[in-house]
Give the backbone structure.
Amino acid sequence: MDLAEIRLAQTRIAPFVKRTPLERSETLSRRLNANIYVKYELFQRTGSFKARGAFNKIMSLDEATRAKGVVAVSGGNHAQAVAYASKVTGIPSVIVMPESTPKNYVEATRGYGATVDLRPTIAEAFEAVKKYEADGMTFIHPFDDPVVMAGQGTLGVEIAEELGNALTDVVVSIGGGGLASGVASGIKGLIPGAKVWGVETEGAEAMYLALEAGHVVQMTKLTSIAKTLGAPAVSETTLRYAQQLLESVTVVPDAEAVEALVFIAERLKVLTEPAASCTLAAAERLRENFTPDSHVVLIFCGGNQSVADLCSYLSTVGSR
């Protein structure tokens, strides 16, 4: 996608999303011996960046198409984003979710007014979409859609606009790759010399495996506790963006993501998902690439998790 597509998305979604805070952290700057900033996207509508892409997709549809409603597949943040965007724009929505979806995600999605269709597996959830599309509903893919990616790219543009040419590095987590693709496109469109570093967790490293293989790799088992990074495969499109725009993809163990999550909660006073805290864990591993003159942004992409999940993280990872 080019910068013009992201700028169009910015105009479309401006009435519906927040321009989330970007703040320098003295604590993290001392820890990493560089100028470290946090993009607090967990304060976005519905608690994650996903609202940007959902609104951009819905607002890109003509009125007749929009009126027929939208359908999405998600067991996480995409579900809530599409449900919320549909509620705000006054259109029907169906979210097809695997039965393994945490209860708090199901309840939040229903709370936004969406119809939830539970299916035994994620594969069966995607298969069920065909029925809704046959009824005229528009499918909103969680990441493999250029309009959705352009919406996520507005986050990168916000970072670039605020830091300008001082910006040297951005660390962004990867699930299916839509966020990283959009952010990297937005950053590079305004500041070509800035470096964008991807991060995944062990057991959810679909992009790392694809980059190593040179083609999309289907993961047979997802084991990471970072469930919102749990895409079984990236797409051809997001792989291409990663090959062209990312410096590398760092894979961190769950234990390091949880350790970072605890540090962030205690010192920065925000509760992130492991999918967000892993950016700090990756920055620790990448620190030799930064200098005291570097201006590095960590994207805290989401904060939707239950207290039960947090307790589970601490007990499970602590026992490994």
About this structure: The CA atoms of residues 138 and 171 lie 32 Å apart. The radius of gyration is 18 Å. The beta strands are 22-24, 35-39, 70-73, 93-98, 115-119, 138-139, 169-173, 195-201, 246-252, 295-299.
